[in-house]
Design a protein that fits this description.
Pfam families: LytR_C
CATH class of the domain at 145-224: Alpha Beta
Number of strands: 5
Largest sheet: 5 strands, mixed
Protein name: Transcription initiation factor IIF
GO molecular function, one term: translation initiation factor activity
InterPro entries: LytR/CpsA/Psr_C (IPR027381)
Strand content: 5-15%
Radius of gyration: 62 Å
Structural class: alpha/beta
Keywords: Initiation factor, Membrane, Protein biosynthesis, Transmembrane, Transmembrane helix
Strand order of the largest sheet: 2-1-5-3-4
CATH topology of the domain at 145-224: Alpha-Beta Plaits
Number of helices: 5
Oligomer: single chain
Helix content: 40-55%
């Protein structure tokens, strides 16, 4: 068996501990550290109470928050921009009205006259072109011609028919009128290709009126009046 060996130690403070519980104690805290939790609780309670009162009374709409201020600034800027746009539009409209009022009626009248002159010149050119086309057409003297005597002179149609035969027209006949007759002497023709012959006949007989008439039976009809 092993023998216990007696070991001696130098006595110290731990050999005689004090009576009762022994532990580590904190020092006294500052007064503001003690009051801070109570202050926070009271402040939160006040804020919640004010918020609840604002909701119940409707005053929450009057409370200006930072983001609501930004929204109002944006709305004001948009209103200012729209106002500027409307003002610009009104100025442009007024400028257009002023320009309309500043128009010179004399210049407009001159422009209208110029347009009328242009239109009349175009019409005259068209008429001249049609006349030139008719003059360029060859005269067909073999076309049937009927001379109608609507005058009180006997044998007048035969005399005029003889003139046309002397001018080279091969198929000419004299006839008496049937039905209504025009007031003035006229040469009627059927078909645009016979216009040149009708104009030549009118020139030969001294008649100024030459008119198309597709309802006539003979290709060219000469009506002698007065």
């Amino acid at each position: 068996m092993a023998h216990k060996q007696n070991v001696s130690f130098t006595p110290d403070a731990f050999d005689n501990p004090p009576e009762g519980p022994v532990g580590v104690h904190r020092g006294n805290r500052a007064w503001y550290a003690v009051l801070l939790p109570y202050v926070v609780v009271i402040a939160v309670a006040v804020i919640l109470g004010v918020f609840a009162w604002a909701i119940m009374s409707g005053e929450i709409n009057n409370i200006r928050l930072p983001w609501s201020a930004n929204q109002s600034i944006t709305a004001k800027s948009s209103n200012v921009k729209s106002g500027k746009i409307d003002e610009h539009k009104s100025k442009s409209d007024n400028a257009n009205d002023d320009s309309d009022e500043d128009r010179d009626p004399v210049k407009e009248d001159k422009s209208n006259k110029t347009d009328k002159n242009d239109n009349s010149s175009k019409d005259s050119k068209d008429n001249n072109a049609s006349d030139s086309k008719a003059s360029e057409q060859p005269i067909n003297k073999t076309v049937p011609v009927r001379v109608v005597n609507a005058t009180k002179i006997q044998g007048h149609a035969a005399q005029e028919a003889a003139k046309l035969k002397q001018a080279g027209y091969a198929s000419v006949e004299a006839a008496n009128p049937s039905g209504n007759v025009p007031a003035d002497s006229v040469v009627w023709y059927k078909g645009d290709e016979n216009r040149s012959a009708a104009e030549d006949i009118a020139k030969t007989l001294g008649i100024s009126n030459v008119e198309p008439a597709n309802q006539i039976a003979t290709t060219i009809v000469v009506v002698l009046c007065k």
